[in-house]
Structures
1.
Amino acid sequence: MVFPGQGSQSAGMMQAWSEVSVVRDTFVQASDALGENLWQMVTEGPLETLNLTVNTQPAMLAADVAIFRAWREQGGAMPAVTAGHSLGEYAALVVAGALDFSDALRLVRLRAELMQSAVPENTGAMAAILGLDDATVRAVCREAAEHLVLEAVNYNSPGQVVIAGHRLAVERGMALAKERGAKRALLLPVSVPSHCALMRPAAQTLASALTEVAVSVPMVPVLHNADVAAYRDPQQIRDALARQLYSPVRWVETVAKMVSDGVVQVAECGPGKVLAGLMKRIEADMQVFALTTPASLQELSECLLKQEA
């Protein structure tokens, strides 16, 4: 089971779940933890408010966990292994029992604030580079960086790599990528250059905050973005979460690790179908489900029951 992060939010993204009590209860818990009405934000918007990093991160965490709880309430099994894309890693740790939900909400709100304040407004950027191999994208970053920061930060699928750093360097990188044969180079609508060296100051403060948070041994393995490894030691988990802020999201390797460990079915648990699409591009033979509506939970249950029979 995999959990999406920032970028999968949309206006009215939880309206399909309005009649599911465990989902509503999860948002009540989340709203109480943060002192604001997250349910209104994810059902009514406005999108501009939801898209603010400090709102997107707790809203997506609450949505991911709420849908997982709905899956479990209807008798769904615990996954054999979990992972989350960037912010989604916190949801994976919550459902694995490693992080308390309320603690995780406060952590991701702090994480968002730290990320936003780490780089002055309009000085950082991210862009998706489509149609180049990983090594070429890294070479483009080295060449276009000059005296600024520019790094490959999200290895989302073969031929889809996100770069991040100083805005001027990102713009140079986009132009150079096109010269090198990229099909497209798209500036992303984000204000924070995630997962690059510009996030190191934020990571230091987050690491301090993590020392104050209880972390338990996960009930199921959680593959961490920074290392493509699962940890049982709480301090290793804290360290992986801090390093994640300035380390690449190694999603292609994460999926490959699942496949090598025998995973043949993956469910994306959260709003949207971004990860489901990436999974199919990474591993065409993988059976992929996107749990975006109550009906999709039933479809997954029926599919699993048929296979058991």
2.
Amino acid sequence: MKKGKRYTEAAKLVEKNKLYDLEEATEILKKTASAKFDETIEAHLKLGVDGRHADQQVRGAVVLPHGTGKTVKVLVFAKGDKVDEALAAGADYAGGDELVPKIQNEGWLDFDVVIATPDMMGVVGRLGRVLGPKGLMPNPKAGTVTPDVVKAINDVKAGKIEYRLDKANIIHVPVGKASFSAEDIADNYKALMDAVVKAKPASAKGAYLKSVTITSTMGPGIKLNPQKFLGAASGTSEE
């Protein structure tokens, strides 16, 4: 696939086989994100686990200290007073059974995060085929199945992101915008990496962080040194 002129110029700033320190990588990232819109900064982490096994799943959530730079629309499944609580806390939409046909039959998906109280999971479960493939199913590990809808909404609006493995055992998540300072991007990235390293399954053997890359929407990937993120407590070394 032919790359555009902007990408080609940006790629010249990145040494292909070099493993960068985070601070240097974020400085280069700011230079390579030259599109006319505010590019999203993304993290791509290839892990040395096999997500097909339940005991090697890596999934969780982390609140980025500087947020994602994106306005997040939140849908809350609840009933009674919890609906009013959710709307008062800043949920964009809140309700119960009446939302199911709207999503199922009308294809309504004008939201980024779904939160549910535990007593609503029977209702939400009926939407598994729609929400599941889009990564929108509420999950206790991500803090999106909870009786405390106010805290869940506040966390999401403050910049909470969910991370999970794809089929290739890679985590892809946003960690900010190109308009952020290099320091803020680095802070967000560190928060993500701390969470992912702590989430290492006990059954994972060998190198846990296979590769760690940071990139902007339209820019080239910049490889980081995985060793820098593995604290002594993790007890692994890269192979």
